[in-house]
Amino acid sequence: MSQLIALLAERSAKRGDFVLASGRRSTLYVDCRLTAMSPEGQLLIGRAALAALRSSGWPVDAVGGLTLGADPISYAIAHASALEAEAGTGGMIRAFTVRKEAKQHGTGKLIEGPFAAGDQVVVVEDVITTGGSALKAVEAVRAAGGNVLGVLALVDREEGGREALEAAGLTVLSLVTATDLSPLIAPA
Questions:
Q1: For residue 129, is it within any domain?
Q2: pTM of the prediction?
Q3: Range of 152's domain?
Q4: Chain segment 146-170, per-residue pLDDT in tens
């Protein structure tokens, strides 16, 4: 896990004055895509996230969340699970994407990929701040007939999002926290 924390601190975390997606101002910005879309990030995230899911005991069929932040994390988990299955040490977990709004053409889907009603799902989030994005994905999964087991976050900013998700009855697993990253982030 220390390699993942170091990679996130080096590539994804910055100090300064930022406006977040939630509208809040912060002196810390974490763009997980810079890590999650890299080969070494995919490898580290896939292994760590899959290990966290296996340790949780949840019977996960599929993982996914709101595009774009959750996508590379979900794909890394699916890939890591395929490698485990190939080695005979675990079952495969599928990945899906939740669109911000349903397509206006074709099938009009809100959820893309090999998701099916009845799936046991873990909603993935790149960074939890308020929990709003994860809650939107949870609502979409439930509306499509999925059973949400919990939320897996790559980074928890520790700004109340975990508590908001838990207040909504969701269990939250986070791989890394802002506290883990802070000592390693270069000054602004």
A1: yes
A2: 0.95
A3: 39-180
A4: 999 999 999 999 999 999 999 999 9
